[in-house]
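Key result, reporting period 2: structure in, sequence out.
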């Protein structure tokens, strides 16, 4: 994806990371089993090779390690409800993934929210987006479609995306409600 290698350098230095995802758990919060199931699905469909899948999983592990640094960046994550309801890898993988999300929500530097389907047209974004705040307080936005990635650093455009993100957070379920939803879904898995 265009811009993604450059984005990764910024992500590693960010002091605040804001994520919105549709349909899947954000990569930075995926368990190894969930990520492997996603990569395996791409291999089976012929979208990537097994070698590319291994590279993808290796890169994800490195990204997750960078985010677990000290001091930790502030993390704000809003997941569309579809991210939780899409079964990936079977019930055991989903149970572990739900446990990971619940543990993430307990960290002092995180906020985890679910954007329920009931938001309808009030949901701010139709595509996943990553918003970063860097140590100098500048920001950038990175968004992907299935065909391309785009990084934006122009402050006016980034500020508009940040405003839309804040509106989404205000409309989404609270962290308490989101954790309760994930807990309920977890109870439905073995």
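The corresponding designed sequence is given below.
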């Amino acid at each position: 994806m265009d811009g993604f290698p450059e984005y990764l350098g910024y992500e590693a230095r960010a002091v605040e990371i804001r994520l919105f995802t549709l349909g899947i758990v954000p990569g930075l919060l995926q368990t190894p089993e969930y990520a492997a199931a996603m990569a395996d699905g791409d291999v089976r469909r012929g979208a990537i090779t097994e070698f590319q899948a291994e590279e993808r999983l290796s890169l994800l592990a490195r990204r997750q390690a960078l985010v677990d640094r000290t001091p930790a960046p502030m993390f704000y994550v809003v997941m569309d409800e579809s991210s939780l309801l899409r079964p990936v890898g079977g019930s055991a993988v989903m149970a572990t993934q739900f446990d990971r999300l619940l543990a993430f929500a307990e960290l002092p530097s995180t906020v985890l929210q679910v954007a329920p389907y009931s938001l309808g047209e009030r949901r701010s974004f139709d595509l996943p987006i990553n918003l970063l705040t860097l140590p100098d307080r500048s920001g950038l936005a990175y968004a992907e479609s299935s065909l391309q990635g785009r990084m934006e650093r122009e402050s006016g455009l980034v500020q508009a995306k940040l405003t839309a993100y804040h509106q989404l957070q205000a409309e989404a379920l609270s962290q308490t409600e989101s954790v309760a939803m994930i807990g309920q879904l977890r109870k439905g898995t073995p």
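The helical segments are 4-13, 32-44, 50-67, 81-85, 91-106, 155-171, 175-187. The CA atoms of residues 8 and 63 lie 8 Å apart. This case is discussed further under Risks and Mitigation.
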